[in-house]
Amino acid sequence: MKRAIAWLGDWWFSPAPAERLAALRIAIGTFAVVWVVGRTSELSGLARLPRAHFAPVGVVKLLDGPLPRELVILIAIATAVLLLAFTLGVAYRVTAPLAAAALLWTLSYRNSWGMPFHTENLLVLHVIALACAPAADVWALARRKGSPPATGYGWAIRLLVALTAATYLLAGIAKLRIAGLGWIDGELLRNQIAIDNLRKALLGDAVAPLATPFLDHPSALTVFCGLTLVLELGSVVTLLGGRVARMWAAGAWAFHLGVVLLMNIWFPYPLFGFAFLPVLHAERPFSWLFGWWRDRRQRPRALGNAPPV
Q1: Ramachandran assignment for 199, one of left (phi > 0), alpha (psi -120 to 50 degrees), beta (any other)
Q2: Which of 95, 141, 183, 263 is the most exposed place for a label (fewest CB within 10 A)?
Q3: Is the dihedral of CA 129, 135, 140, 143 positive or negative?
Q4: Chain centre to alpha carbon of residue 112
């Protein structure tokens, strides 16, 4: 048991570059800023709905009723500003926890009007985890003085990976609890695809491009259902890291693409790849970009110091 605990500790706290954690902060924070800004007008519209539509969820249950429209918009703007500071690494020890709390509140308030959406849960969890980590030691406008330590970053990245894996694992367990192994025969998924696309057609929304072909040939849905369970229940392999984690991430991304093609349902955070960044070398494109920018800034100086011809 002691050896197992020691191995687990060595694995969980194994070193990782500070640049990788900083890259995750920048990428995930940028997505969060864009997401909140895009939801501001929607929040403003929801504030005009009757009080009867307000059903608080999560932390919003602290309220007895909806907030004034002006206050809702003000909180959304403050959330975007805090998330921008989070992304840039400004006063990170203060702004990061505030940004995480504001994001949790804003998106929970959004879900308190009508059907709660679970497409944003992983984003909120990732931001909260990053807010608790030293993710602004490098590549930040107000980074810490001196060189970053060689260790202390791997655990935060593994926490992000574990959160991603947990969301998919829970989705797979939920399918088994609701339908058992009967999920694999594809009948439940076929009914869900048919009802969802029929509703879209009746309401004038776009029907998924592959819905009709798959409904005409439902046997193909059996393969899709089986692969879905394998991906979701097998999400724990991401904790192993390396090629197997990247292969799982590619499969999970393809799954979300399939959901768009079959049901026209979008999960932007994983569909655009942000949910899977913790299993990748996320720092590489940023290293290239910052290096290119640094070289570009230094080139005019070098030309200015060149001797006249």
Answers
A1: alpha
A2: 141
A3: positive
A4: 20
CA-based torsion, 269, 270, 272, 273: positive or negative:
positive
List, for residues 143-171, the tens digit of each pLDDT value.
666 666 666 899 999 999 999 999 999 99
Which has the closest alpha carbon to 72: 119, 96, 36, 28? 36
pLDDT tens, position by position, 83-100? 999 999 999 999 999 999
Helical segments of the chain, H only: 2-12, 18-46, 69-88, 92-110, 121-131, 154-179, 187-202, 211-216, 219-233, 242-263, 268-271, 283-304
Instruction: For 190-212, give the secondary structure using H, E and C.
Output: HHHHHHHHHHHHHCCCCCCCCHH
> Cα(165)–Cα(24) distance, rounded to whole angstroms?
17
Interacting residues of 222 by C-beta distance below 8 A, sequence separation 6+: 184, 185, 186
Cα angle 100-120-254, degrees, rounded to a multiple of 5: 130
Q: pTM of the prediction?
A: 0.90
Q: Who's near 197: CB < 8 A, 6+ residues apart?
A: 207, 208, 211, 263, 264
